[in-house]
Amino acid sequence: MEPSLNYRGHGIALFSGGLDSTVAILIVRQQDIKVTALTFMTHFGCDITDTSSCAHDPSSLAERFGFTAKIVHLGEKFVDIVKNPRFGYGRNMNPCIDCRILMLREAAEYMHLVGADFVFTGEVLGQRPMSQHRRHLDLISRVSGLEGKLVRPLSAQHLAPSEPELSGLLDRSRLERIAGRSRKRQMELAAQFGVEDYPDSGAGCLLTDVGYSRRLRDLLSCTENVDFADLNLLRVGRHFRVDGETKIIVGRNKEENDKIQSYRKPGEWIFEAKSVGSPLTLLKGDLNERNIRLAAALTARYCDAKYSDVVEITYFDGGQSYTITTAPAAEAELERIRL
Predict the structure, then answer these.
(1) Residue ranges covered by each domain of the chain
(2) What ranges in the chain are assigned the alpha helix state H?
(3) Is there a smaller number of Cβ atoms within 10 Å at the N or the C end of the chain?
(4) How many CB atoms lie within 10 A of CB 179?
């Protein structure tokens, strides 16, 4: 598809890099509409080095098909809706409706800033269980402030005409009438447009993951002021809740050890079995003798000497270091405190 120099209008796209949003952009682009695509990032999603649809690097597609791609991080705004979603959670900690509304509000603000004509998405009627039923699509349009200005090109002929369609800026007959979970039609369109490399449809949002959601629930219930280091640590290692104040995190490999070290805050202690291959273990909270011994025992349990009767563990607070000898933690103890 060759970029047009005679744009008839300007649309702002929500672009995950996945199949649906890619096809939606190309459907709009073929009507000589300038497209600026916004890829939203959060601390609970993937990044563009991951493999799921929300992580696909938008730059190569944008360059190839003649649209502009921008990456926008939602930061604290998204953290706030995860803590208190107006429209509730999905099956886990995913506030899908609030998430979509926040992204669309950001897109609307950008639309007004640059003088664009409308916002559009790759949403498909009936595809996702929480946010893409007709009632929720209408609610999202209204609450986001985009009623009339929000176009869903893949399902447009199932939905009420938007202002760009009514005005003739978009030819409604060239938009699609896709509904349901099948992506057969989207794949046909992708082939017609010459798009072959697109990620699978698996969700990249960690808030839909059972294990991650359990850790996040625990963090929010036990920590009054959650910061981004706390959130980033949820992706890393094995997590153990000792008490309402105290948590232990044990790395699985060198990459996780490095991350644990980088996210450590002043006053938090690191444990390691220096003489053998060892995880780094982070002790957060009450640094009493019992918790120090438990963190050491967990380190011993996951180090290369885990079958030894006792293991020497070194721990330090960023300054002075200490040693303790301990037996590896018993499996029953792990199960009692594991998140």
Answers:
(1) 9-193, 236-337
(2) 19-29, 59-65, 75-83, 96-114, 134-143, 163-166, 184-193, 210-222, 228-233, 254-263, 289-302, 331-337
(3) N
(4) 18
The single-letter DSSP state of residue 10 is: E
Nearest to 215 by CA among 236, 237, 234: 234
Eight-state DSSP code of residue 17: S
Helix (H, G, I), strand (E, B) or coil at 208: helix
Sign, Cα dihedral of 250, 255, 261, 262: negative
Strand partners, 251: none
CATH H-level, domain 9-193: superfamily: HUPs (3.40.50.620)
- 19-29 and 184-193 helices, crossing angle to 10°: 50
Secondary structure of residue 313 in the 3-state scheme: strand
153 close to 20: Cβ distance less than 8 angstroms? no
Integer-rounded Cα radius of gyration of the chain: 24
- Element (H or E) spanning 321, and its range? strand 321-326
Residue 284 to residue 233: CA distance in whole angstroms: 11
With CA atoms as reference, report the closest residue to 250 among 209, 213, 281, 214.
281
Residue 75's region, left for phi above 0, alpha for psi from -120 to 50, else beta, is left
pLDDT beneath 70: ranges in the chain: 1-5, 45-57, 129-130, 199-204
